[in-house]
Amino acid sequence: MVFSDRILECNQSPMRKFHTIAEDTKKRGIKIYQLNIGQPDIVTPAVYYDALCASTQPTLAYAPSPGIPSLILQMIRYYKRLGVEYTTDDILITAGGSEALSILMNCILNPGDEVIVPEPFYPNYHSFIGMAGGVVRPLQTNIDEGYRYASREKLESLINERTKAILFTNPGNPTGAVLTDSEMRIIADVAKSHDLFVIGDEVYREFVYAGERLLTIGMVEDIADHAVIIDSVSKRFSACGARIGALITKNRSLRQHALKLCQGRLSVSTQNQIAAAALYNVTEDYFHDMREEYRLRRDTIYSRLSKMNGVVCAEPRGAFYVMARLPVDDADMFQSWMLTEFEYDGSTVMFAPGAGFYKTPGKGQNEVRLAYVLCAEDIEKAMDILEAGIIAYNRR
Fold first, then answer.
1. Could you tell me if 52 and 69 lie in one domain?
2. Fewest CB within a 10 Å sphere: which of 124, 225, 243, 294?
3. Separation of alpha carbons 109 and 101, rounded Å
4. Are the C-beta atoms of residues 373 and 40 closer than 8 Å to each other?
5. Same domain, 207 and 321
6. Residue where a domain terminates, one of 279, 309, 338
7. Quick one: how far is CA 331 from the chain centroid?
8. Are residues 24 and 115 in the same domain?
9. Where are the alpha helices (DSSP H) in the chain?
10. Which of 119, 39, 35 is nearest to 368 (CA)?
11. Residue whose C-alpha is closest to residue 136's, from 163, 155, 157
12. One domain for residues 13 and 73
């Protein structure tokens, strides 16, 4: 049997590739502190389940392909509070932010077209771009510079006749970097002058810890026809399993093409859309409390990593991830060893090996992404295990 070149080039998720080994580890009675996946442990607001239980349609019918009106209206109100005016035609509801990205890439890319992506980047970008026939053009960043990348010179050095878009996560996954207003302006100006799409994956918008205002790409009015926002309820409301996202743009032609694919997959879950609409009724106190909890977790993990011998990392300013360079030869081998041969007081740790967050060959071999999605007490324990594991691994 012959499989497609595109699927053969598609890599496993570095966040989930050790799942089978981890299950065997658990069967041996070893507790695993899972810092590999961005699955928040924050309680999902009760309004979600209240709305789910209150929905008693005689027949559970397809939702409209663009999304149910009540959810779209709630998103419009949400963006209006941010200072951005959208209409019902500007928003397409998708099965999580992942489907929004997949639909978008299939709308804008021909085989061989390129998308500029700062690396390290969310690994599924490579999958979505590749499955649409495109190519990731990595914009290299590094820990020592705090993963800053919004330089006109750097961006324009990567642009050629095949470049179609600039894609970034803000706040950053996996780096935690947050764009300033001036950096956002630089990216917008480059996209405008070279007639490119500028795609802001903003699913971590509420997770900013220095008190600064986070500018959404939708607020840059003079690039409205170039700008695309990828959004989701997954992280904002700790509702990853709802699988509700959105593709948002004022580009009419893009919306019309994306709608074809939305119609082709029929609809997103009716019940989950109804329940997700209720999430937008939470008060600002919810976001404040959640942000303070993650700030504590960020401070805990960053403090511990910074004190470990040979570990290098930059302080995350947003999202809930940190990239760290470890004093090990290969993070994949280290993770496998941690799960199969090491335990500390009956426990071990999972992380996401760094190579999968890069396109550039050889990059990230001794780096890991850690998701600080556990309580501070558990993060302290996980760091004890990681530190002991590094020492034991290098003494083998």
1. yes
2. 225
3. 12
4. yes
5. no
6. 279
7. 21
8. no
9. 5-9, 19-27, 46-54, 69-82, 96-108, 124-131, 152-156, 181-193, 252-264, 270-279, 284-307, 331-340, 376-395
10. 35
11. 163
12. no
CATH number for the domain that contains residue 357: 3.90.1150.10
The number of folded domains in the chain is 2
The residue among 50, 53, 94, 52 whose CA lies nearest residue 72 is: 94
Query: Among residues 152, 160, 155, which one has the least CA distance to residue 112?
Result: 160
List the 91-94 sheet strands across, edge first: 91-94, 245-249, 227-232, 197-201, 163-169, 114-119, 135-140
Give which of 217, 235, 247 is closest to 319, Cα–Cα: 235
The residue among 378, 334, 381 whose CA lies nearest residue 354 is 334
Number of C-beta neighbours around residue 247 at 10 A: 30
Amino acid code (one letter) for 356: G
What are 139's strand-pairing partners? 118
CA 273 distance to own-chain centroid: 21
Q: Which two tokens stand for residue 295?
A: 């700030």
Is the same domain home to 225 and 351? no
The single residue listed with the structure tokens 């590999």 is 36
In b/e form, how buried is each residue of 116-126, taking b as 16+ CB within 10 angstroms?
A: bbbbbbbbbbb
Q: How far apart are CA 153 and CA 332, in angstroms?
A: 34
Q: Which residue has the higher pLDDT, 343 or 214?
A: 343
Q: Which domain holds residue 15?
A: 5-43+285-395
With a threshold of 0.90, does the pTM exceed it? yes
- pLDDT, residue 271, reads 95
**Whether residue 56 is found in the same domain as residue 21:** no
- If asked whether residues 17 and 128 sit together in one domain, one would say no
Instruction: For residue 301, give both structure tokens.
Output: 């993990």
Residue 222: give its domain's CATH number: 3.40.640.10
The pLDDT-based confidence of 14 (bands split at 50, 70, 90) is: low
